[in-house]
Amino acid sequence: MNFVSIRIITSDVARLVAFYERVTGVAADWATEDFAELRTPGATLAIAGTRTVPLFAPGSARPADNHSVITEFLVDDVDRVHQELDGFVTDLVAGPTTMPWGNRSLLFRDPDGNLVNLFTPVTPAAVAKFGR
Prior knowledge:
By secondary structure, the chain is of the alpha/beta class. Helix content is 23%, strand content 36%. The protein folds into 2 domains: 1-50, Signal recognition particle alu RNA binding heterodimer, srp9/1 (2-Layer Sandwich); 69-127, 2,3-Dihydroxybiphenyl 1,2-Dioxygenase, domain 1 (Roll), CATH 3.10.180.10. It has 4 helices and 8 strands. The protein is globular, with a radius of gyration of 15 Å. The two termini are 25 Å apart.
């Protein structure tokens, strides 16, 4: 098995795609007006509109209703990225903080309220884990 992507369902695909393009620096590949993907070397972030939900199962997903998943992106320098996103990210949950497991993390919410963590490994063990 290979983990390929995570999909966020939203009522405003263009808004959420623009947000993630700015945060990640990755241009989205649009399949339709209801579906776009931001592909990174590790995985893909898919963003889909509510009109796609019935294709799987009606009512199976609701936009802006996530209370348990954090989407994480590995970045070269979380403190620099924090400065670059200052003023753009409006829902900051926690500024850069070094976690007990060795990553320096920046936690915020996207426009739909989904949690996003940008992190940089800073301890020798964390750096080794991510091959940096």
